[in-house]
Amino acid sequence: MSLQPVRGTRDLLDDELQSHQRVIRIAEAIATTYNYRPIETPIFEYTSVFQRTLGETSDVVGKEMYTFSDRGGESITLRPEGTAPVVRAIISEGLTQTLPQKRIYSGPMFRYERPQKGRYRQFYQLGVECIGMASPFYDVECIALADHILKSLGLSDYKLHLNTLGDTESRNKYRQALVAYFSQYQNELSEDSKTRLEQNPLRILDSKNEGDQKICADAPKFGTYLGAEPKAFFDTVLKGLDALKIDYTLDPHLVRGLDYYCHTAFEFKTTTLGAQGAILAGGRYDGLMEQMGGPSVPGIGWAMGIDRIALMLPTKGNKKGLRIAVIPIGEELETEALKLTQNLRQHDFTAELFIAGNLGKRFKQADKTECQIAIIFGSDEFSQNQVKVRSLQMDEGSSNKEATIESSQLFSYLSALSI
Ligand code: ATP
Ligand code: MG
């Protein structure tokens, strides 16, 4: 039996887990001020939820999904992303009657990829979906929310890349131009891109293959094929971002890997994480709900990679608070010590009781569990309603400080220490 976690998965603990939790806490608090409400969908769905929406030629559907038959013979897929499940849920729950639906979610996603730093097979996303709003002002709002969250997490080392994928008509014209262009390089394209050339040439622009990327450099740009209406839409988005002083870089080759995007497409990238520089990505998906069998309702949203953002957060500053070790001397005081420990916790102190072993061993254990102070009492102290409070942290070469405190003064003494 292997005692290692499955390749591409990992156990989250301590600083890394706390960073994840911090990202979620801050994002949820900020999204609330934009009137977003939480949603949680199941970790697995019928395979068709993803197959129909993400597109057969996407990397996700073609190579990355964890799909299996369950014991009843249903084809099930562990969710590789959150948008299709949220849209599915809004249809299933009859919420298309009460639009707009602004929803925030977070949780694990699953993709069979080549694991490396910042790329896992079980990874964590937090995302928002704003469903039922067609105005470009919601594209602005959605991007502003992403930027607001990243800034509030203390991040500044990132850039917003922006493009438009236009409406269906301009996309069709662009597609023809791309087919004409890429057909000249048919033999040089990667195998994947050869298939994409037939099924979804836009996606070649998103290829990670180096040879493909060289060919893409000179590919036609969308701007030339953009109709007046989608152009006006995009201009309004840009104006809104300017008004909110949100910087962006126009990136004419930015496309989203998934089939359902139109109009605004965006990605927040950092240079600090090497190849895994994409930290948040999203766009408008007006056709998705209808494609899933619901009414024709527009939508826009994004998902951030929590694992990658956590890697960018400063590791210091996870406040641990005051941890207190309670150490009684003498078996007859153990019950008193138990009562005191519980009492401390009820007053919001973090406390741990050390009963077993000789005193030296108990101080060592207290140190290992990162307690900063110990409350010690033997029968002498107990009979005089006193305790000893000893500092366990030997900073600046000082020896352990110890003070004798009246029991009645203990909580106010500890409160002063924790400030
Ligand atoms: P990439 O280009 O890095 O493969 P993607 O386009 O497949 O990313 P999206 O589907 O847009 O990614 O997901 C949104 C975000 O989720 C990404 O920007 C990234 O931060 C994160 N993400 C995607 N796949 C992984 C993964 N396997 N491990 C960790 N984070 C991931
Ligand atoms: Mg990917």
- Give the count of helical stretches: 15
| Cα radius of gyration in angstroms | 28 Å
The top-level CATH class of the largest domain is: Alpha Beta
| CATH level 4 superfamily of the largest domain | Bira Bifunctional Protein, Domain 2
The proportion of strand residues reads 15-25%
Number of extended strands: 16
Helix content: 25-40%
Here the CATH topology of the largest domain equals: BirA Bifunctional Protein, domain 2
Shape: elongated
Structural class: alpha+beta
- What is the CATH architecture term of the largest domain? 2-Layer Sandwich
Bound molecules: adenosine-5'-triphosphate, magnesium ion
Q: How far apart, in Å, are the first and last alpha carbons?
A: 48 Å
Write down the domain tally.
Answer: 2
Entry summary:
With 419 residues, this protein is of the alpha+beta class.
Protein architecture, described:
- The chain is an alpha+beta fold and 419 residues long.
- The protein folds into two domains: 14-167 and 227-312, Bira Bifunctional Protein, Domain 2 (BirA Bifunctional Protein, domain 2, 2-Layer Sandwich), CATH 3.30.930; 319-417, 3-Layer(aba) Sandwich (Rossmann fold), CATH 3.40.50.800.
- It has 15 helices and 16 strands.
- The strands form three sheets. Strands 1-5-6-11-10-9-7-8 form an eight-stranded mixed beta sheet, sandwiched between helices.
- α12 links the parallel β12 and β13.
- α5 runs parallel beside α9 (228-243).
- The chain is elongated.
- The site of adenosine-5'-triphosphate has 18 residues, from β6, β10, β11 and α11.
